[in-house]
User: What shape does this take?
Amino acid sequence: MAKPKTGHTKGNSANMHVSMWTDSYYPYISGVTRAVATMKETLSTMGHEVSIFCPDYPEVEAEDKVYRFPSIKSPTNPDYYVALPLSLRAYTEFSSLCPDVVHIHSPFNLGKYGFNLARWRNIPVAFTYHTMYRMYSHYIPVVGDKVSKAVEDAAFRVARSVDAVITPSPTMARYLQEHNAGVKVYAIPNGIPVEQFRSGDPGFLAERYGLPKDVPVILTCGRLAAEKNLNVLLDAFARLRKTTQACLVLVGDGPSRAALTDYAKALGVSSDVFFAGSVDPDLMAHVYAGADLFLFTSLTDTQGLVLVEAKAAGVPAVAVAALGPKDMIEDGVDGYLSPNDPDKIAELAAHLLNHPEVLEEMSQAARKNSESFSKEVCARRLLECYCSLL
Assistant: This one.
């Protein structure tokens, strides 16, 4: 029996229907969920149809064109839910939608299921390689470190099977090409609503978290977990505080929060460190508006979406020069790239805080440079990729 075919054969981007498959989505907050939600909103505003297939979460509200699979709580992360791809309704809905392109955001579970459905219906597949998967194997109980290569090899196999691979940064594109892990690789960053991050309330952060007055605010955002390398960030802050007055705000939550709180106490800087926990994405523009400097020490981010958001808000960054951040910061122009060395990070941060004229110059450059990461610019590049597959 011949395979069913999609009912769309357009070779341009007019009225395109994209079906996105992701192993996490709102209300779970991560770089991937925010990227997928932004893509959906932007493409829809541009006149295209986007359907999302994702896990269900407790008490989640229904959303148009979002189809959820039954899910169970992850044993290694109580906030994360793992979808069970057994929903006949989701399969029926997908078949009735007849999309032009399937865009998967994971090589596993729902991403793999969406890939298989697309192949069955002869629909082209794009795959965004969001994550350096081998660096997250510590979340697999007992055998995590032993299976890191197997996890990455499995992701590579999916990348070689799709019609186009998308990476959030040129560095990741080169990594996949060096490992022969993609048919054709497009470096397309995840876009952000630039204007939204330029309109925050500068007083929000200090008022909400009781920050000391007239003290420079250093901000970092992201999951509080081992892969974010936050011990180094706290070490750098402790060194900075020996010469420069400042406070540090960590936005985000995760399994390392208690350990990091204890570490800040051990370093003697706990009175200057504020753990803000998770913040509603709609409030993040206000968070960035209250910061003077952004620090980022993650070794695993393939883009570092928070770096782009900080740029849009005019907040220069000092970031460890690893993977995606190397492409998000123009070293010496809108921030500094540093070795993974707390002494060097502290030195660069202190230089900016103690030279307000340099900080202001970088702030202006960051605002300007963020425009190339606007959600509209990135969406147009994404549509060009989709059209190349039709």
